[in-house]
Design a protein that fits this description.
about 450 residues; alpha+beta; Aminopeptidase; 2 domains; 13-stranded mixed sheet; 14 helices; 13 strands; globular
């Protein structure tokens, strides 16, 4: 075949190929829809997408799947899941992790409360929890920032048309959360009464350029105290303490059980039940801590006398959560029976943790609590909010108020009975009642 023939053949083929119009491809329309998760099986299936959504939203460690699923396992016995999830096609773009907190009297449900997973709850398998606050320090919806308006529209339709409730309560919403704005907009009609009140305060150490920059934010007295604490850490003859971070292969029950024992002893000595007075709280703590540790989100530090090695020399344990480049100071417990307790190993352990956070450019969150030591060491404060939304019905509001008072009285009586039992266990029977009332007056006068 001559070159001219080849060129003619190629030209013919090219023209033929380009002369034919491309078939029109119709794009499949996007489908944005919400679904309601009612079963634990569906809850389980959300794990991967849930945590991916957490990564691209303004979430805290208390919004991740492991925390919420574990909380539901331990405290959701009498509730009913009502998790609203918003999808754009098959992409999860929003979650409102709600449930119905049921109250039954003689087989009748006179009042229905809608709450967030992780919040305070009326009843569990072991009865009402001792604590008056939710175990989760921050509660909020998970919403992709590009879908805020769409999420609001779907949540509004769900709450107005697809579910019955007398009251919606969400505790501990961060003050800058879109959850507050969305709920205020959803329930702006006259059918509802909205109350937004102050919840817990929290204190933080914001990211600093250096440790010296952080110290400049403190008073001169506190700065000297911090430097003195750090000088006590080391393994030399002049040092008081050494600190190490635990690394375990697999099961971490041993240090956690030791921690619970120290924590309870510390609070019981003050005539208080302590955070782990209830078995249900211990089980939840052990379970969720194991899962967080396996995911690299939990850090355990131990303080010992300088020159000592081994778990048996433990003076205190510090448990911190690390998520999305932020450190949360969850719990700290000390051996109050150790002769080293008077040397303030707890403060030394805390200062060392704050220094680690600052030097790694992680904000340190003290979590809930208005304690003086947090105020002294923090560089900022945040104020959580609580939102209550009630149906504008005299009967329903009255029933809700009566039941909330009833549950609070039950909790108070249970707490006080545990306090009295704690004091009786630590004192002779003749002194127990006297000491109980002394502690009671101290708490009233705070």
């Amino acid at each position: 075949m001559t070159m001219k023939k080849i060129e003619e053949e190629l030209e013919h083929t090219t023209l033929e190929n380009f002369a034919k119009p491309e078939p029109e491809i119709k794009e499949k329309p996007r489908v944005i829809e919400h679904r309601i998760i009612n079963s634990e099986k569906e809850f389980d299936e959300l794990k991967t997408d849930w945590n991916l959504l957490c990564e691209r939203t303004n979430s805290t460690v208390f919004q991740i799947y492991e925390w919420n699923r574990t909380w539901w396992d331990h405290f959701g016995a009498y509730g009913e899941l009502q998790i609203l999830v918003l999808y754009d096609d098959e992409s999860l773009v929003g979650i409102a992790p709600l449930f119905i907190d049921r109250t039954e009297i003689a087989g009748i449900e006179p009042y229905t409360c809608l709450r967030m997973i992780g919040s305070e709850i009326s009843n569990t398998k072991e009865g009402a929890l001792l604590g008056f606050k939710p175990y989760s320090d921050y509660l909020q919806f998970l919403i992709d920032k590009n879908y805020l308006k769409t999420f609001y529209e779907h949540l509004s339709y769900f709450l107005m048309n697809e579910i019955y409730f007398d009251e919606l309560i969400i505790d501990e919403i961060p003050e800058n959360s879109s959850t507050l704005i969305i709920l205020d907009n959803v329930f702006s009609s006259s059918r509802y009464e909205i109350t937004i009140s102050m919840a817990s305060k929290g204190y933080n150490v914001l990211s600093e350029d250096s440790w010296d920059d952080y110290l400049k934010n403190l008073t001169s007295k506190e700065r000297n105290n911090v430097r003195r604490s750090l000088k006590s850490i080391g393994n030399g003859e002049k040092n008081l303490f050494r600190i190490e971070e635990f690394e375990f292969n697999g099961d971490i029950k041993k240090p956690l059980n030791r921690f619970i024992k120290l924590h309870q002893n510390q609070w019981n000595a003050r005539g208080q039940p302590g955070s782990f007075a209830e078995i249900s709280m211990q089980k939840f703590f052990l379970d969720v801590s194991q899962k967080l540790y396996e995911n690299g989100l939990l850090k355990i530090k131990m303080i010992q006398p300088a020159g000592s090695y081994g778990f048996e020399h433990c003076l205190g344990i510090d448990i911190n959560l690390v998520y999305k480049n932020r450190m949360y100071g969850q719990h700290r417990a000390l051996d109050i029976q150790s002769p080293h307790f008077t040397k303030s190993p707890g403060k030394v352990l805390l200062i060392d943790t704050i220094k680690d956070a600052v030097q790694s450019q992680k904000p340190f969150d003290f979590l809930r609590g208005d304690e003086k030591y947090k105020q002294r060491l923090a560089t900022s404060m945040n104020q959580n909010k609580k939102i209550q939304i009630r149906v504008s019905s005299g009967y329903r509001k009255w029933v809700g108020w009566v039941l909330s008072v009833y549950h609070r009285i039950c909790k108070t009586l249970k707490v006080e009975s545990v306090r009295l039992q704690v004091i009786e266990d630590q004192n002779k029977s003749g002194l127990a009642v006297t000491r109980y009332f002394r502690y009671l007056f101290e708490r009233i006068n705070r």
